[in-house]
Every structure is written in C-alpha cells, then in structure tokens.
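Chapter review. Work through the record for Tr-type G domain-containing protein before attempting the end-of-chapter questions.
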Amino acid sequence: MSGREKPHLNLIIIGHVDHGKSTGIGHLFYDAGAVSEKVIKDFEAEAKALGKESFKYAWVLDKLKEERERGLTIDLAFYKLETPKHFFTVIDAPGHRDFVKNMVTGASQADGAILFISAKRGEYEAGTNPGGQTREHAFLARTLGVNQMVVAVNKMDDATVDWNEQRYEEVKDGMTRLLKMVGYNTDKIQFIPTSGWTGDNLYNKSDKMPWY
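Structure tokens for Tr-type G domain-containing protein:
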C-alpha cells in the first residue's frame, strides 16, 4: 500500500500523571524503529546525569527543559508514526491536572485515544478516584467525540503487580465500569496489559503474560 493510500489517524495518549504514557509511547517508537538506539543511549546518559535514568524513553516525547527537570509532560507533543497499514499523528498529552487545557486541545483533534492506566497498587486507585485524571480524561475524551479507544493497563512489570492476571482483571473490570459510566461502548474497547518500561505488549507480544 502506497503512502498516499494509507489512512491517516490522529491518536491522543491520555491518562493520569505518572501512569507511564510518555515512557510507553517513547518505547513503542523505539521498538517500531522510529527512534534509533543511539538516540535512546544519549537520552539514557543525559537522564542518568540528572538522576532520572528511568526517563530515557519518556524523553523521546518530553523535549522541553522544564518537562525533563520536573519529570512530567506539560505541553502537547505531536509525532508521526508510520505502520504497514496506517499513518498516525501521535499526540502526547499531559496527565497533570494543572495542564488539562492542553489535553482538551489535543483531544479535540483526535480520532482515537490510548488511555494509559497504571496497574501499580495505589497509582491505579489515585487515577480513578474522584479528582483523578484517569476519570477526567476519559470523560473529556468522550465529551469531545473521541469514540475509539484502546486501554493500556500499564506497569505490569511493577513489583506490586508482577505480571499478575488477577490484578489485570481487577483493573480492567474497574475501568470497564468507569468507561461505561462516561458513555463508552465498552464492547468495542480493547484492553491490553503492557509495560512501558520493558516494552511488553507495546509493539511485540510479551512472553511474560501467557494468560493474555
């Protein structure tokens, strides 16, 4: 299929602060060959010097000096990704409630969303409790007409989760109820257990979760 024939989709990345959005998408770009190993190694060295080694994939998307120093996404970032069947414009949105206006701007341009949810104990609950950005982002995306969604149940590698199917199902069930509440047809939403840090189930199928 030639480039001009491929459908183009705007895809927004949403979710609560620190649930692994930028790391997950940065790692996806790396695994897809859109970012070179040299770039990741350079980011790793720079991040290590600031005591933020775990941010090496996030820095693919978080380019502002303040974002790197604070360890969070502030502004919208737009990136192109080509797959065998599609062209994507990936919109990385901030998860912190102080920058929700930027998320709204991005969602208003989106055809679909990937909602990142941390399965880590305490983090999932913080995002879905009243005032949590998982809840607010899902509501805003639905209100703005973003009807296509994939849910990445992230941080499956965390020590409190350890690739556990029961925890994945617990998070999935809770999110299914929340998404139904804000108006989504959850029969059409795909849930995927992922690890943004290790890359499991981002671009290549994981061998750590044979139950999925």
